[in-house]
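If your schedule permits, I should be very grateful for your opinion on a structural question. I would ask you to consider whether the tokens describe a fold that such a sequence might reasonably adopt. Thank you for your consideration; the sequence and its tokens are set out here.
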Amino acid sequence: MLVRLLRRFLRPDSGLLTLLVVLQVASTVATLYLPSLNARIIDEGVVQGDTGFIMRTGTWMLAVSLLQVLATIGATWIAARSTALMAVRLRAAVFSRVGDFSAQEVARFGAPTLISRATNDVLQVQQVGFMGAAMLLPAPMMMAGGVFMALREDPGLSLLLVVAVPLLGLVVGVAISRMVPQFRSMQTSVDTVNRILREQITGIRVVRAFVRERTEQERFGEANTRYTNTSLAVGRLMALTFPTVMFIVNASTVALMWFGAKRIETGHLQVGQLVAFLTYLMLIFMSVMMATFMSMMIPRAAVSAGRIDEVLSTDSSVVDPEQPREIPAGPVTVALSGVDFCYPGAEHSVLHDITFTARPGETTAIIGATGSGKTTLVNLIPRLYDVTDGAVTFNGVDLREAALGKVWAHCGLVPQKALLFTGTIGSNLRLGRPEATDGELWEALRIAQGEDFVRAMPDGLDSAVAQGGTNVSGGQRQRLAIARAIVARPDVYLFDDAFSALDTATDARLRAALRPATRDATVIVVAQRVSTILEADQIVVLEAGRVVGIGTHRELLAGCETYREIVESQQADDQSRPEVSA
């Protein structure tokens, strides 16, 4: 999985790749050549007192060292640049795929894990990609070249390598086999910590309102402890591995000095050769340690790559048809015919045999008890989900046969929870129609009853909006969300309980101003308050996911028991509402 991701997204051009290989080969060859020159200076220059030879060979060593430094810098820069670009492409691919997900896939993964996969997991893959690009070729070359040059200096001492190198490989292999499951557990723990932290930050007011600070601290503490314990387990393995590797390296060095001194004493080896052999031994061990370090990174990166690939290989359940049909131009008639919907994994359907038609120039209201399926029904109209059975049509065209972009272009959705994006009020209002003029924005704000508070802001339309719109009140967020939908001029307005945060007077003024602005559009309103939908052309009453009544306010009062109960319950709550009387 990791290799497949790297091959797919690490795409340096052939010239850059060739330059990288050339620089790495040059750096490795220069590194391997330097100990041999050093040995010659010691044995032929220092021992024999030839100053001229020392100067000539030393100059050559400086030139080779300069080549080695420049080649290493160049290779590292190319590797860093290539892997940084790879991370950019990988994050963009994850972001794009998540953007294509329907609400079903987003709910299945969950926001916290999607954030972790687009950030932490991509970082893990980037790091191992850089290590691979920087070390994958030099490490084996250094090991093979070091063994060759060591054999060239003294074949007898090279027998030490037969013992030390396999022993290092055994230590590394055992460590990696134990790290893989720990890294997998670590990434899962990161998701859990992110999820709980995100919940606590988002719901901080609820936590404080119910005095649940200590409980939330304990819940986060448990998740944090699991992550800490997993990290400590990995840390213990690393802490054991590196000292073991260093022990093998140091023991090999001591053995080399011992046996090398014996061979110098017998005349089979010179001092410079022993120094060179010691340097080659260090280079061999260094390449093994680089491979060890990279091998420790690979398991975690492999787990991250699998998690990223899971996102990239997941197709949205809501997709464009191969040959999309065009939705006829003009005002849009929305029709639901025998619609059933069941959430994935659920045993029972949420909606059953929903059938009604919403026509242009009319307001269709949807009302029902909590949990009756109102929001689910509204989400089917812009095709955020696909129906399980039946069909939703725009001007007679099944939405599953139309291009998603065309369907969304016809709809203006104001969700239950109004969401604003970081930027300005103007940028938020222009979200659906970037070319809208300031005059059109102010007109939309006037209709949405938001003009007064926006004009009261120091910068008007250029006033800053914090993430999620947290620097304005809930009612102001809803009015801005309604204005945003008005600016887009859609053919179908979908208000999912969009007036719940407004007081009765503001609600009435908004609906009165909205009526002429939407006279050619199809308006579908989900409401809790009967007063909001009194003047609707038709009211659809839901109960347990089924339509139990369709008609005007008076018709339903006379013939729908469920609607009558809703009206009477609201009358009992507030007898001062004359509009809910028969």
The domain at 334-577 is CATH 3.40.50.300 (Rossmann fold). Residues 576-582 have pLDDT under 50 and may be disordered.
